[in-house]
Design brief:
The structure is a single chain. With 223 residues, the chain is α+β, with helices and mostly antiparallel strands. It has two domains: 51 residues; 165 residues, Pathogenesis-related Protein p14a. It contains eight helices and five strands. Strands 1, 2, 3, 4 and 5 form a five-stranded mixed sheet that branches. A hairpin with a 2-residue loop joins strand 3 and strand 4. The longest helix has 24 residues. It is globular. The N terminus and C terminus are likely disordered. It comes from Liquidambar formosana.
């Protein structure tokens, strides 16, 4: 009976650690960002915006266009992707039908060297200018898509919100109804368990458990 008990104990230990890590990364920070944004809109008697996964995937592609360069966001060296990239690169990479692209009525973009939660990202990074408030409460906006990503899974971290005046369910339509998932990064509306914004340190924390489990298994089998 010793061998099965050792094997079972080791297996349960590893599975418990894995479940704990999965719980930490299951929430999608991009969805949380949309919730915070909509809560702020409804608090000012503005309507909640439709969380469009096609637009959100494009928001993540928008982030990737900066190639991890925080210095290209804001300030004298600020840059932004050309509008043509929405048609030529972003939409195809997401599987969004180009014919369903709608006007982008607002862009909120921020970058930080450390990861913060959605509430702080919204209030302390994305909404620090009066122009941002004007975009947030613009009554022409009907849809929102958010992307959140680290660079290669780590710092720096980018937050992007794209706003549109398109018609929900008929703009930014996804081929086959599902966006192409790309890592690192998360985007809203995807019903995706997303860990793409976190660095690999969470995964590395599993190794002590895995090592202990393997040692226990080896002992049980007399290896």
């Amino acid at each position: 009976m010793a061998m099965p008990l050792w094997f079972l104990s080791a297996s349960l230990l590893f599975l418990s650690a894995s479940a704990d890590t999965q719980k930490k990364v299951a929430d999608n920070p991009a969805d949380e960002l949309v919730v915070v944004l909509n809560n702020n809109r409804t608090a000012e008697n503005a309507s909640a915006l439709y969380n469009n996964p096609g637009l959100a995937c494009i928001a993540l592609q928008y982030i990737k266009a900066f190639q991890g360069d925080c210095g290209a966001i804001g300030g004298p060296n600020a840059k932004k992707p050309a509008d043509s990239e929405f048609v030529e690169t972003f939409a195809p990479n997401c599987g969004v039908q180009v014919s369903t692209l709608s006007p982008i009525t607002g862009r909120l973009l921020g970058c930080e060297t450390k990861y913060v939660n959605a509430q702080k990202a919204f209030s302390e990074i994305l909404m620090t200018k009066n122009e941002s408030l004007d975009l947030l409460y613009n009554k022409n906006n009907t849809e929102v898509g958010a992307g959140v990503s680290g660079t290669d899974g780590g710092s720096p971290y980018f937050w992007c919100v794209l706003l549109s005046s398109g018609k929900p369910n008929s703009s930014f339509v996804l081929e086959g109804g599902v966006a192409k998932l790309t890592r690192p990064g998360c985007f809203s509306g995807a019903n995706d368990e997303c860990s793409g914004t976190y660095d690999w340190s969470q995964t590395r924390r599993l190794w002590p458990y895995a090592t202990g489990a393997l040692i226990a298994i080896a002992y049980a089998f007399g290896l």
